[in-house]
Every structure is written in C-alpha cells, then in structure tokens.
Amino acid sequence: MTGPRDSVIGVKKELAIEKFLSQVPKKFEVATGSYQFNAVTIEIDPQTGKAQLIKRIQNYE
Questions:
Q1: What is the pLDDT of residues 1-57, one digit of tens each?
Q2: Fewest CB atoms less than 10 Å from the CB: which of 11, 17, 25, 44?
Q3: How far lies 60's CA from each of 2, 36, 46, in Å?
Q4: Domain range summary for the chain, segments of one domain joined by +
Q5: What count of Cα atoms within 13 Å lies in the side-chain half-sphere of residue 43?
C-alpha cells in the first residue's frame, strides 16, 4: 500500500465513510498528510519456483 496514512485507499476518510453509510454518490477528494509505503520483496528459487526469502518493506513519513 502506498499513500496517505490517514485515508481510505488515498481518499479523505470522512468522505469514504459518509458514502458508505449513506449509499449516496459522493465526490472523493485526495487525502493529504503523512504517507506510508508498504511492500515485500521475494527471492525465488529458479529451480523449484518456491520462495526462499520474503522481506517486508515499511516506510513512514
């Protein structure tokens, strides 16, 4: 996941929650603020195709 930490998939959380609760279309706005970056790297054995190492990457501002 990459994007603002205090958001719902990059959208201002208040707008996403309001749309979910009311089921009424709502124009989304991009959230701002501290960001996060989460990912994994995977080393794969070329012979077996199985993962040998999975490493988590986390970066926060």
A1: 677 888 888 889 899 999 999 999 988 888 888 888 889 999 999 999 999 999 999
A2: 25
A3: 10, 5, 33
A4: 2-60
A5: 3
